[in-house]
Write a structure and sequence with these properties.
By secondary structure, the protein is of the alpha+beta class. The protein has one domain: Fumarylacetoacetate hydrolase, domain 2 (Alpha-Beta Complex), CATH 3.90.850. It is about 15% helix and about 35% strand. The chain is built from four helices and 15 strands. The strands form three sheets. Strands 1, 2, 3, 5, 6, 8, 9 and 12 form an eight-stranded mixed sheet that branches. The two termini are about 25 Å apart. The mean pLDDT is about 95. Bound molecules: magnesium ion.
Length: about 200
């Protein structure tokens, strides 16, 4: 399986990254399958970064093979979603950005793609979902999928023109405003607003 992620998909997050230009097409990057982790094990702070950030994102799981998917049919290609954390070595990413180098290391290291418990999309409107992240009981990020620059169907369609989508592939759909660092001992809890928690992660 592969993990496709979208950068710069919420306007207010662009501002905190000092990005003045809104992208004209989805900005995609990949994480290797070795990046995938659930929340059963703690997240171990790696020694190669002094600044690991959380990015709370809605994640969809591809449910069938697809290539060149039209946007209007894209909803047929995912049946489950959850809240995930696109863990980012911000110090390494900043260095890469300054020199226009790839994000592979800063975004793709082990345990950098944390996913919570998946829920069926069912009758939900995937673009009308409120989600949040709490750290040690304080809400640090709130997101609303209606604020995305590129909708999930647009992202699925766009990605499928470059990469054949396969059952089980995951798409991280971008983070809203409020990213920040994690520290040893932190307890991260993420979920949909007014619903039960989908992810609980300890930082070690
Ligand atoms: Mg992200």
């Amino acid at each position: 399986m592969k993990i496709i992620a979208v950068g710069m998909n919420y306007r207010k997050h662009l501002l905190e990254l000092d990005e003045s230009q809104e992208p004209s097409e989805p900005v995609l990057f990949l994480k290797p399958d070795s990046a995938l982790a659930g929340d059963k094990l703690p997240f171990f702070l790696p020694d190669f970064s002094q600044e690991i950030h959380y990015e709370t994102e809605i994640v969809v799981k591809i449910s069938k093979l697809g290539k060149n998917i039209a946007e209007k049919f894209a909803h047929r290609y995912y049946e489950e979603f959850t809240v995930g954390l696109d863990m980012t070595a911000r110090d390494l990413q900043r260095k890469a950005r300054e020199r226009s180098l790839p994000w592979a290391v800063s975004k793709g290291f082990d345990q950098s793609a944390i996913v919570g418990r998946f829920l069926p999309v069912g009758e939900r409107d995937i673009q009308d979902i409120h989600f949040h992240l709490d750290i040690n009981g304080q809400t640090v990020q709130r997101g609303y999928t209606g604020d995305m620059i590129f909708s999930i169907d647009r992202i699925v369609s766009y990605a499928s023109h470059f990469f054949t989508l396969k059952t089980g592939d995951l798409i991280f759909t971008g983070t809203p405003l409020g990213v920040g660092p994690v520290h040893i001992g932190d307890c991260l809890e993420a979920g949909l607003d007014n619903e039960e928690r989908l992810l609980q992660l300890r930082i070690k």
